[in-house]
């Protein structure tokens, strides 16, 4: 069995890929030319858009989104967003939820690559590439725009033509981290920020399983992966393609916040290409507890399957180990765009 990361592009459901601009990954709205009616930071809020009609503040109706003034001169409005982790972009969602008479009739997206910690001035002076040419947008809608993932980017610029409001911006793609910070250090081979990807799950009823490999501690029961109650024989599972081929030494299975819906047991199968081997035998888990297991296997793996018995949730999955020299070189080639 081989588990590989999902890829975007023509014909793929790019919204299944992680949001590289997610606030939980470190994404942020760095600048906007105007935010007269509603603040730019709303664009990367993690929760669904909320709205209460006929709720007025000093600037008019309160909106959960970014809204600019009515433009009286030529041009358009824009906002610059830093991706939490650089990567290839497969699609953009510009959600205009609840913007009905004040949405932009068209949007366009540009992207650039500036590593490190650039200032807004440095970003404005950078070379930007148009990845979504001006395209029609509808009000109170999820406007989806497919992108050909041809190279790695670190920032995007949302342009609205000529003005108006956008509630959320999602930048779906595949993470490509900078391997220069890895060297031969141990790292979490299952972390999204390091290039790992959730490739499949048996059940995603309550939450997006990508939550299990996001950075930081889970903020609530909803921040992780949780299944419906299983009424049939068997168990639920989660597949993760690792950041690269590596040897896993420590597994952390965190059930924090899952007090009455934690799995009773868990196990981990590992895969090195088509070869399968046991990484963690079926083990009892406790509710609301971060578990740490020292592993004895010295075999490298490219992917894992986390089994939970019979169902429940997992706040975070961490798999600490080292990349092989070949995997580290392959990551360098991806980062530099030579592979």
TrEMBL record:
<comment type="pathway">
    <text>Nitrogen metabolism; (S)-allantoin degradation; (S)-ureidoglycolate from allantoate (aminidohydrolase route): step 1/1.</text>
</comment>
<dbReference type="InterPro" id="IPR005164">
    <property type="entry name" value="Allantoicase"/>
</dbReference>
<dbReference type="InterPro" id="IPR008979">
    <property type="entry name" value="Galactose-bd-like_sf"/>
</dbReference>
<dbReference type="GO" id="GO:0000256">
    <property type="term" value="P:allantoin catabolic process"/>
</dbReference>
<dbReference type="GO" id="GO:0004037">
    <property type="term" value="F:allantoicase activity"/>
</dbReference>
<feature type="domain" description="Allantoicase">
    <location>
        <begin position="26"/>
        <end position="175"/>
    </location>
</feature>
<feature type="domain" description="Allantoicase">
    <location>
        <begin position="195"/>
        <end position="323"/>
    </location>
</feature>
<comment type="similarity">
    <text>Belongs to the allantoicase family.</text>
</comment>
<dbReference type="InterPro" id="IPR015908">
    <property type="entry name" value="Allantoicase_dom"/>
</dbReference>
<keyword id="KW-0378">Hydrolase</keyword>
<protein>
    <recommendedName>
        <fullName>Probable allantoicase</fullName>
        <ecNumber>3.5.3.4</ecNumber>
    </recommendedName>
</protein>
<dbReference type="GO" id="GO:0006144">
    <property type="term" value="P:purine nucleobase metabolic process"/>
</dbReference>
<dbReference type="Pfam" id="PF03561">
    <property type="entry name" value="Allantoicase"/>
</dbReference>
<keyword id="KW-0659">Purine metabolism</keyword>
